[in-house]
Amino acid sequence: MKLGITGCGMIVNDLFRFIHDVVGIELEAIASIPAEYEKVQELAQKNDVKKAYECYEDMLKDEEVEVIYLGVPNHLHYSMAKQALENGKHVICEKPFTSHIKELEELNQLAKEKELMLLEAISTQYLPNTLKIKDMLDEVGNVKIITANYSQYSSRYNAFKEGNILPAFDYTKSGGALMDLNIYNIHLMVALFGAPKEVKYQANIEKGIDTSGIMTLDYGNFKAVLIGAKDCKAPISTNIQGDKGCINITTPANGLKGFKLLRNDGTEEEYDLQGDTHRMYYEFVEFEKMIKEKDYTRAYEMMEKSLIAMDIATKARQSAGVKFTADEKWDEV
Question: Is residue 130 a contact partner of residue 256, using CB atoms and an 8 Å limit?
Answer without folding.
Answer: yes
